[in-house]
Amino acid sequence: MSSNGNRKIILGVGIIISFALLTLSVSTYFNYQHDVRQESRLDPDAIDEMTIDEIKQLMIESREAQSIFHGFYLLPFMAFIGLLVGTVVYYLMSDKVIQQEQTLKKNTKIILNFLTRQERNVIETLIENNGKVQQYELSHLPNLNKVKTHRILVALEQKGIIRKERLGKINKIVLNDELYDVLKD
Asked: Which of 53, 71, 97 is the last residue of a domain?
């Protein structure tokens, strides 16, 4: 499945979950409002027997007894907003990230064209061997000997493309991690 298909699935799931949270938030709020109205409702028969001052006093007491609206009922709504915004931002930003990765790959391959044929062969061998190879293995490449290999590696090391790690008498050649990540595909 393509990355575009994965992004669409993530977007769809995010929107579905966010609307479920919105529905939960709205239904919780309306249930709360309904319960408050039911509790504050006055009995019509009792009102007929009360004086105006008693009715006022009862209304004041019922208002004081009502709990203040708590943010608890807004949590699902806030989650809805957060998830919706996060999903949309992810969808929009992932396009830019994919474009930047493709541009970086293209630019890196263009830059590699400025290397000599033998330097490119060394880089390709490093990529085939997961970015690490011993120096003597490179000297067995076509048209390379120990001296040419050494000179090529010195040039690549000065350019920051590779680094040498000493393992006793053997040099381990390691491709720059960022360059390897871009070129390995």
From this structure: 97
Q: Are residues 10 and 85 in the same domain?
A: yes
Cα 43 to Cα 50: distance, rounded to the nearest angstrom = 11
Neighbouring C-beta atoms of residue 56, cutoff 10 Å = 11
Residue 140 sits in which domain range?
Answer: 115-183
Q: Are 151 and 145 in contact (CB under 8 A)?
A: no
* Per-residue pLDDT, 39: 67
Structure tokens given for 64: 């004081």
Distance CA 117, CA 129 (A): 19
pLDDT tens-digit map of 109-150: 777 778 888 988 898 899 889 889 999 898 888 888 999 999
pTM over 0.90: no
176-180: long-range pairs with CB below 8 Å, 24+ = 177/131, 179/108, 180/126, 180/127, 180/130, 180/131
Q: Are residues 90 and 11 in the same domain?
A: yes
pLDDT tens digit sequence for 26-42? 787 777 777 767 766 66
Same domain assignment for residues 177 and 146: yes
